[in-house]
Amino acid sequence: MNDCQFSLEFKVRDYECDIQGIVNNAVYLNYLEHARHEFLLSRGISFAELSKKKINLVVIRTELDYKSPLRSGDEFSIEVNFEQISPLCFCFNQTIYKRPDRKLVMNAKVFGTGINEKGRPCIPEEIRKNFIELSN
Amino acid sequence: MNDCQFSLEFKVRDYECDIQGIVNNAVYLNYLEHARHEFLLSRGISFAELSKKKINLVVIRTELDYKSPLRSGDEFSIEVNFEQISPLCFCFNQTIYKRPDRKLVMNAKVFGTGINEKGRPCIPEEIRKNFIELSN
Amino acid sequence: MNDCQFSLEFKVRDYECDIQGIVNNAVYLNYLEHARHEFLLSRGISFAELSKKKINLVVIRTELDYKSPLRSGDEFSIEVNFEQISPLCFCFNQTIYKRPDRKLVMNAKVFGTGINEKGRPCIPEEIRKNFIELSN
Amino acid sequence: MNDCQFSLEFKVRDYECDIQGIVNNAVYLNYLEHARHEFLLSRGISFAELSKKKINLVVIRTELDYKSPLRSGDEFSIEVNFEQISPLCFCFNQTIYKRPDRKLVMNAKVFGTGINEKGRPCIPEEIRKNFIELSN
User: Tens digits of per-residue pLDDT, D24-59?
Assistant: First the structure.
């Protein structure tokens, strides 16, 4: 393990692969989201609970660099680092490595913000306390 | 209609929406892929047939800007323009608009290349003839 | 067209196909759900609106007979008939046919009920008026 | 653990949940497929490798009884038992339990057969050796 803030292990499931026999390009966004939500949970924040309170974390921009494909049976890990970009924007830097050789699969930047009950952009208190203030 | 090279109409399906009641961020990549493949088909190129011949079109980079969410029942269209970037890289510029008011939903750039039977990057003959030479 | 209560047309999207080059067996449940929800909409019932009112239509049993596979580019239609089974249970009989030759793809029975705000089984008023009483 | 032939543990991922806040009914077929393929792998059979050899295992009928829903964050296990039904048909009996209290989530029967290179139904040698003969 290295010094990322959070890491999660996965195994490719066959239904995630497409006609080409590789994981479909959209499925990586599923993987990345699950890793982010588990990262949030590891700091006490439930995406589902937040959304019940009408506080929605939303993705505003995604950059994905596909470096090598994943195939049936492959095991991989996703490493995640949180970064504050501006008062109303944060970014999850996420990297996917195949196991056990750490071959690079994907570099991803997922930019997000919060939307409060009134529909206005905000950084939810939970994110501020558990991510932003911790890193200062 | 405007002067894009290709346009396809969709309607949100409920299973594509998540806990927040909006289309999940990964589903947009499904929409974008389907629009590209129909664009290819409109010029006589079948993604599935290509992949049977071991010629694989692959995505190497994606940039997605989420501008406003789609919800249950929304109708929308995806407009697509092909652009050659370099000898071995092309880009599909894709924009999603909600109908009927053309509210902007997403701007996307999807960069791709081809991989031939030997695993080497290439621009497949079919792409060259039907996209690149046509635009010169 | 024949004398079913509702029919909806689809086209296979490539991301719905798996390693075997055919539509993955789970995707049929997506198709069937979308056809049912459009059937409901055609009678003025929005699944999403119902669920906002804490009235949830839920599937309790599904029987699927896979007769022949769908592949990339196939066009098909889903025919739906509603049937009341018991005071608290209804069934959507759904059949998938490939177009244009009406080759049988799947026979499906999807049994459902409603769950009211208190978590108790019920037949929502909307279903009673627009489906059950109409067929008496 | 009890005396099933194979068991696999899962955790619900948020993108698998729909507007109602519960795992979408189609996603259970993904879970069930992944459990079956891991069961096959545990006996040395790769679904992906089989399909490269043009030997396809296919689902011909599915019966699903939804007993209670899964939600964001739920952990569950799927227990699988193989049963030969007739010379050309086998069945995977699969049960989903929520953890840690083993609340019943779903009973499923998934009937399948093999299709050989010539498109004819068959029981692949690999299934015969590792499942059928073992149970005699």
Answer: 999 999 999 999 999 999 999 999 999 999 999 999
Told to judge if A18 belongs to the known catalytic residues of this protein, a careful annotator would answer yes
Residue among C13, C14, C16, C38 with most chain B CBs within 10 A, to mutate: C14
Which of A18, A65, A74, A101 does the annotation list as catalytic?
A18
Q: Dihedrals φ, ψ of B52, to 5°?
A: -65, -30
Round to whole Å and give the CA distance between C24 and A15. Answer: 7
Any B CB within 8 A of D19 CB: yes
Amino acid at D70: L
Residue B134 banded pLDDT, cuts 50, 70, 90: confident
Chain D residues in contact with C58 by the CB 8 A cut-off are 20, 66, 69
Alpha-carbon distance of C35 to C29, in angstroms, equals: 10
Contact C48 B15 (CB under 8 A): no
d(CA D121, CA D86): 12
The pLDDT value given to residue D32:
98
Query: Is C13 part of the contact surface with chain B (CB cutoff 8 Å)?
Result: yes
State the Cα–Cα distance between residues B50 and D33, nearest whole angstrom: 28
- Please provide the average confidence, as pLDDT, over all residues in chain A: 95
pLDDT tens digit string along A37-61? 999 999 999 999 999 999 999 999 9
Q: What is the pLDDT of residues C52-92, one digit of tens each?
A: 999 999 999 999 999 999 999 999 999 999 999 999 999 99
The model's pLDDT over A89-113, given as tens digits with 9 standing for 90+, comes to 999 999 999 999 999 999 999 999 9
Contact status of B26 with chain D (Cβ, < 8 Å) = yes
Q: Cα separation of B98 and B68, whole Å?
A: 9
CB B33 within 8 A of CB C15: yes
Strand partners, A65: A107, B61
A96 touches A77 (CB < 8 A): yes
Residue A36, classified by CB atoms within 10 Å of its CB into exposed (0-12), middle (13-18) or buried (19+), is: buried
Q: Which domains does chain D have, with CATH numbers?
A: 6-135 (3.10.129.10)
Which tokens hold the place of A42? Answer: 């590891």
Q: How remote is the C-alpha of B87 from its chain's centroid?
A: 20
Q: Taking CB atoms and an 8 Å cut-off, how many pairs form between chains C and D? A: 61
- B136: confidence class by pLDDT, cuts 50, 70, 90: low
Q: How confident is the model at residue B75 (pLDDT cuts 50, 70, 90)?
A: very high
Q: Which residue of A has its CA nearest to B22?
A: A58
Q: Which of C59, C67, C92, C117 to mutate to test the interface with D (most CBs of D within 10 A)?
A: C59
CA distance A13 to chain C (A): 11
